[in-house]
Write a structure and sequence with these properties.
The protein is α+β, with helices and mostly antiparallel strands. It contains 12 helices and 17 strands.
């Protein structure tokens, strides 16, 4: 491994300006849910131009429905591919095969007037690059692409196959990652460079989405006393979810999260209701996200949350008779854990130490990632990625020094895991 290490680092240095430009380009695509086609086409051709064997795969939810990690979609998959580029080794296999995976979907940038700069025109200020999705997680994708590019430019020949995967729907179902695994794009290990502040992820919570629809009885506001305001009734159920949040965090904690002050988050993220200021609204719908510990079946949490909301509805005279409609969609994601004794954890830790001179810290993550899909396929996998701030918020940024560090770490790790011929 040592023969090429210095040369690879030199190539990463030579490619650094190109890597930053590549990340700026990725950040210029507003690849929110349903709008991923253009960035995926760009990546397809970019990997192809690197000399990788590239395929674009359509996501078919009917093929995926029986997987534990399937998330129920409420939208179409037309023109929303997942992409894989393969660097196949020749001759006898020496090391272990590897998947490097990133998601290209980003959350909405709105409201854009809260940004200091255009969220889809990335800018660099004080060593940070600002833009929607640059931290979560287009920066990680730039790192894996340029780690591989540096290795190839250095003339390295790997002893095992390597894949770069670019997927969709990490932010809502995980079906993109599942689609490639279902098509046989598997390996002996996987790394997802989600933003972990250069820490190794060893545990993450499960996540579930639900929608609650409340019906009221409308009227002109002058007769409001005879009406039932659906928005105000929905507020009672939102309040009950906040009580549920405190309830689950007051229970004994999972060992991986016992030092975290508030590991399980519940969020009401979207509310729709009413259509006229002088009319009492007859319907209100809200979407919510619920976290739960690894080792818990998502169906168990669905039943628990549904019963919690129905019990809260019984405390209101109107809701007791007009039962709220509760449905589950999007994430139905179990938690995920990986032992620190797994070889992939040790090897990435060694690479981190080799590049930074420091021991890698561990991370128990209070959200979800696509790691769980690899768990279903018995592929050891972890996350290790850059430093930054404001994910899912205005003025998201990535610290460029951390991007360069992790590009070096990933290149070092590839040499350890796949080995040289």
């Amino acid at each position: 491994m040592g023969t090429n290490n210095e040369l690879v680092r030199k190539k990463i240095d030579e490619l650094w300006d190109e890597e930053k430009l590549f990340l700026k380009t990725l950040g210029s695509f507003p690849s929110t849910l349903g709008n991923e086609k253009e960035v995926q086409e760009f990546i397809y051709h970019y990997l192809q131009d690197m000399g990788m064997e590239t395929e674009s795969v359509a996501v078919d939810p009917e093929r995926l429905r029986d997987y534990e990690n399937f998330g129920e979609p409420d939208w179409s998959y037309e023109d929303r591919p997942v992409v894989v580029g393969e660097w196949k080794s020749t001759g006898p296999k020496k090391g272990k095969s590897l998947i490097l995976q990133s998601h290209m979907d980003v959350v909405s940038a709105g409201p854009e007037d809260q940004w200091d700069t255009n969220p889809y025109a990335p800018v660099i200020k004080d060593g940070k690059m600002y833009g929607r999705g640059l931290l979560d997680m287009k920066g990680g994708f730039a790192a894996i692409v340029f780690a591989v590019k540096a290795l190839r430019n250095a003339g390295v020949e790997l002893g095992a196959d390597l894949q770069i995967q670019s997927v969709i729907e990490e932010e809502c179902t995980g079906n993109g990652a599942l689609a490639l695994l279902d098509q046989g794009y598997t390996a002996d290990g996987a790394l997802i460079p989600e933003p972990t502040n250069l820490r190794l992820l060893h545990s993450q919570v499960g996540v579930m989405w639900l929608q609650v629809k409340v019906k009221g009885a409308g009227a002109h506001v002058e007769r409001a006393e005879s009406a039932q305001n659906a928005i105000m009734k929905a507020q009672k159920l939102m309040d009950s979810l906040m009580a549920y949040r405190e309830h689950i965090n007051s229970q004994p904690k999972h060992p991986d999260f016992e030092h975290h002050p508030h590991p399980l988050n519940v969020n009401v993220g979207k509310v729709e209701g009413g259509d006229w200021a002088s009319s009492v609204p007859t319907e209100c719908t809200f979407d919510a996200r619920v976290g739960f510990y690894p080792g818990t079946d998502p169906e168990t949490i669905q039943k628990e949350v549904k019963q919690w909301l129905l019990d809260a509805a019984k405390e209101d005279e109107w809701l007791k008779e007009s039962t709220p409609e509760i449905t589950f969609f999007g994430f139905s994601a179990p938690g995920y854990t990986i032992s620190n004794e797994e070889e992939i954890m040790k090897e990435i830790g060694s690479s981190h130490n080799n590049v930074t001179g420091k021991q890698a810290e561990n991370l128990a993550f209070t959200a979800t990632t696509d790691l769980r899909a690899f768990g279903e396929f018995d592929i050891p996998a972890t996350c290790y990625g850059p430093i930054g701030a404001n994910m899912h918020a205005p003025n998201e940024y990535i610290e460029l020094d951390s991007l360069k560090t992790m590009t070096n770490v990933i290149a070092d790790f590839i040499l350890r895991w796949c080995e040289e011929k």
